[in-house]
Description:
The protein is of the alpha+beta class.
Amino acid sequence: MKLISWNVNGIRATVNKGFEQSLAQMDPDVICLQETKAQDDQVREALFGSSYEIHSNSAVKKGYSGTAILSKQAPKQVVRDMGIEEHDQEGRVLAADFGDFWLVTVYTPNSQQGLARLDYREQWDKDFLAYLQKLESEKPVIVCGDLNVAHKAIDIKNDKSNYNKSAGYTQREIDGMDNLQEAGFVDTFRHFYPEEEKFSWWSWRANARAKNIGWRIDYFLASQKLMDRVEDAFILNEIEGSDHCPVGITLK
């Protein structure tokens, strides 16, 4: 079973940049999307004719945020949001029950320029962990998406110049990822490739992607009890169409 996650930075824009061809090339059993920037009906319209079953969660604000899960096999149930009004306005969380595990896709809030939203982000991280732990009390969890944090120095090209200055690489955000992992959610890519420098997001500016000046902020985390089923984790740098590239895992 191949699971993929991709922040598409606008599903309609990515469709115009060859999303269908990329999807056929990757051929996932499930693909989770973040930052769809579209209402539910617009997501369906953009993906009209797809052979995948489509579930989406859009923000109240049009053209903003949003998540989706496309799957070859229908999940048993799909649940939108965390059930916390403060967090449930932006379509950032979507969970699908695939029988023996929950698959959660998330588009974690960015702390924004000047770290204006860092306090909110810190509260989000605490509430999201509690939400995952509640799901995990039922069955194991796989969580994927744009977590908007580079966890370690190896996950960001210019670590010293960004530390505690740039959204996505402050100690408070790093602590949030630490807390996820200490709670038993394993960073699958780092599990298999502890020393590999590989990124999943690049700024549009200064030809950053061509120079590979990037950040690894897109993840697959899995409950410890599922790790014996995870065969591999990967980052598909060659797939274009967004400022992020897809990441994924294979399950046996």
